[in-house]
Design brief:
Layout (H helix, E strand, L loop, with lengths): L5 H15 L7 H11 L4 H10 L1 H19 L8 H10 L1 H7 L1 H42 L2
Helix pairs in contact: 1-2, 1-3, 1-7, 2-3, 4-7, 5-6
């Protein structure tokens, strides 16, 4: 993390984790690449933390759907992977159209949570980076 300010590093980590949790698989890498480029944040740091988020993203898809359903006052989506796979295999477009609102609920649920996730991750990241750098300074002072 040499050559990067604490704030920039913490922003790259917070951005990557927040966007990395985007509930539609396959979009977060593109989004993070674009935002990190525009904000001149460290791409390698952003991408590493994005990739680390993969399993967490999968675990949070249903909770994001539930938050979106709550916000929309929608009926609960019941996930039956066997039925979903069969429908998708038979007619992908019809299946995607049928579940479009579920995707919307997931995205809205994620968007609702993003400010909190970003602030928590940024605060923790900045604190950890500060401690790491302070520890490195103390080590070099003792040499």
């Amino acid at each position: 993390m040499q050559g990067i300010s604490q704030s920039d590093c913490a922003q790259a980590i917070a951005l990557a984790i927040t966007i990395g949790l985007f509930p539609i698989v396959g979009f977060s890498t593109l989004i993070i690449t674009a935002i990190a480029y525009l904000r001149r944040l460290n791409q390698p740091i952003a991408q590493v933390f994005n990739w680390i988020c993969g399993p967490i993203k999968l675990a949070l898809i249903i909770p994001f759907i539930r938050v979106g359903e709550f916000l929309f006052g929608a009926d609960r989506f019941v996930l039956n992977l066997r039925e979903l796979s069969r429908q998708f295999y038979e007619n992908s477009w019809a299946t995607l159209s049928e579940f479009a609102w579920t995707f919307v609920h997931a995205i809205v649920g994620w968007a609702f949570c993003t400010p909190i996730v970003y602030l928590v991750v940024y605060t923790i990241s900045k604190s950890v980076i500060f401690r790491m750098r302070r520890g490195d300074t103390h080590k070099t002072d003792n040499l």
